[in-house]
Amino acid sequence: MHQYEIQEDRKVIIDWLRRLGLEFHTSFVVVNPEIPDHPIAYANDAFFEMTGYREEEVVGENGKFLHGTKTDATIGSQIREATASAKPGVFEIVNYRKDGTPFWNEITVQPLAFPEKSLRYTLMLQRDISDRRRAETLIDLQKETYKGIEKGHVIGMLLQNICETAESFFLDGVRCTVLLVDEAKRFQIGAAKSMPDEFLKEIRGLEVTPDSSPCGAAYSRQKPVVAENVFQSELLTDKQELLYKFGVQAIWSVPIFNGKDEAIGTFGIYFPQIYKPTDKDLNFMEEIASIVSLAVKFSSQQEEILRLAYIDEESGLPNRHYFRTELKELLKDGKEGVVAFISADEFIKISDQYGHRAGNDLCRELGRRLVLAGGAGEKLVARFSDARLSLYSSVPLIRAPEFLEDVLKSLREPVTIGELDLFLTVKVGVAIVTPAQQNAEELVRCADSALSKAKERIGEAVCYFENEQDELMMRDLRVANALTVGLKRKEISVFLQPKVSLESREIVGFEALARWKSPELGDISPAIFIPAAEKNGKIRQLEQHVIEQVLAWLKKRQDQGLGLRQVAINISAEHFFHHSFIPHLVDVTNKFGIDPKWIQLEITERIGVVDIDTASKVFDQLKNYGFATSIDDFGTGYSSLSYLQKLPVEEIKIDRSFVSHMDEQGTRAVIRTIIQLADNLGLRAVAEGIETEEDRTQLLGMGCTIAQGFLFHRPMPLDEAHLL
Question: Start and end of every EAL domain (predicted)?
Fold first, then answer.
């Protein structure tokens, strides 16, 4: 074919594409892949409208003129390769409009072949997907922020990541800030890494007023404020020299709100050129600000819960919850060591004579000395109760006597109380940590028992707990053997303890509790036979037995036309994660003809540490089938807040260990925070272990509405509960 004929054919094809472009409203370009630089042979009006370029600026050019700083060169190479090899494909890449605005472009590469003319072109459909990518980014950013909180990342790092993500969607050279407002109504830097230090010095501590800046105005007015040209803004007349120095020509700012619709700061964007936002831009900024709000809110709540849960506010020492939790972690190393309880005989006299504050000061001073005693090494010191301090050290057992003597020596020095120097009479109870004894709760019990013996002696005393390991092992073995037989004989019975409305005392539900009276061993505590069932692989069988008894009781009431109330059943982690858990639960519920809504599965918060992703899937399945769910022992583990956001539960139970120490100021603060957290997340908070009218009054005052405990009802057999 002659050259002029090829040229004529090209004109015909391009003319055909041009006519197609008039009807085709989707942006597209046609590229000539037969020329090395793959120039654009044709672009339709929709492309010019999307990019802001004119036809004479596009035709004959390689598509790289759309690339910029944020463009992924790897994706660009993939598009070029698909064009050259005539392979179709879909690619997402950041391109730039003529005004410098980046946008996400979905490019669909489609080869066009004209065999009869021996010609080929490549059609590239172009679609602006910035809105979709912004929405996806907001979701991903929220997930990243939650993960950062649960991993303990500092709030500044989380906020900086939010700023950098927002910057990627605007002009090159854009800089973002998160400015938080303190109690004195002054700006403090939440995140502003991309801003110059000199600029930050001007901002940090600046008084927040309606006319101090766009950020100050946004905070004060509680709505977005835009200065699209800072040199014409009345808000910036005294800062134009500074803005000019740092190349800031436009500032947009939106307020950041807390959960009470009160402004707590601002999210601002600083542009290197005069720039006016679209409605979508402002909506995006407000979405970013809401994620900042979540980060600040949950990070502060996480810190507050951990602080209140693990620090004795009166002495500043770690408390018993911290000691127990940390001890479990430290024992995982399998090291030898000692757990000791320390008490001074004079504590009560000092508190009575000089006041409770003097007792707190005494504990603080003794705690300081314990931290320093015995030299370097892994050590844990806490205030376990008003008068008792707890101590763990990974000292080798061969050095334990020497270590304890150093501890006593440090406590023999007089303590100044008021104007008096007092010498203390110290009692110490010690439990030995060995490879065979690594149970934290058992070690705590042993050390406490040893302290009781030490208190029976006159003067300074150290008592070691006598080894009962062999006796304990034999007891566990007897219980395990009897349990196997007991499950076959159906000796395990179910008692129900009512949950009540704190205000009306009306029963609103029950908790099912397993009870065992063995013909051979007598009454066996759940604290003994449930761990034995877990240890010997019988826990699923035991819990299935409880479920069936509860369903049979509900069916009896249903058949007699009596009202039904929801019954909570405790489920172990092993059973919860077992593949047969949900199928068996659904089958047996259908068998008895009970609506799943009357069954609540109560799971200990430890499952949040085991496998949060699988746990979330199981909870979703339970919810889909109509079962209710609850988190037991809330607040006693490490990751309460982090997993609570991910699990679709309806209820959290405040552990009885908090309620039983509600007279302590720090514990009350923990309970109040948990109730508030539950309310914020739309959950029901249930308090366990209510024994006095004072407990009831305090919990009502803190906003708790449901509870269970001996004040209202003790656990009762099914026949007795049937009469309620």
Answer: 476-724
